[in-house]
Amino acid sequence: MALNKLGIDSLDFKGKRVLMRVDFNVPLKEGQITNNQRIVAALDSIKYALENGAKSIVLMSHLGRPDGNRNEKYTLKPVAEELKKLLNR
């Protein structure tokens, strides 16, 4: 049985808000990213949506295992900063 998957190139992004699930669970040491490979892996999809007219993109991810509690140790702020740098925004 074959699975019929939609590719990102078959979607219309013009003027739409996009919710994208990404894997940004990157290793941190003292609040600094030690390997940004997972962020880099998502760049093509993020850029594709932006370049094809997405009004906005909400990126959904997690960092570590916070066990349902708010903990600054698991903040995605370092990921956001790295993403800004990689996207030149």
Automatic annotation (TrEMBL):
Pathway: Carbohydrate degradation; glycolysis; pyruvate from D-glyceraldehyde 3-phosphate: step 2/5. Pfam families: PGK (PF00162). One of its GO terms (cellular component) is cytosol. GO terms for molecular function: ADP binding; ATP binding; metal ion binding; phosphoglycerate kinase activity. InterPro entries: Phosphoglycerate_kinase (IPR001576), Phosphoglycerate_kinase_CS (IPR015911), Phosphoglycerate_kinase_N (IPR015824), Phosphoglycerate_kinase_sf (IPR036043). Its EC number is 2.7.2.3. It catalyses: (2R)-3-phosphoglycerate + ATP = (2R)-3-phospho-glyceroyl phosphate + ADP. Keywords: ATP-binding, Glycolysis, Kinase, Magnesium, Metal-binding, Nucleotide-binding, Transferase. One of its GO terms (biological process) is gluconeogenesis. Coiled coil: none annotated. Its cofactor is Mg(2+). Belongs to the phosphoglycerate kinase family. PANTHER family: PHOSPHOGLYCERATE KINASE (PTHR11406:SF0). Monomer. This is Phosphoglycerate kinase. It comes from Cyprideis torosa.
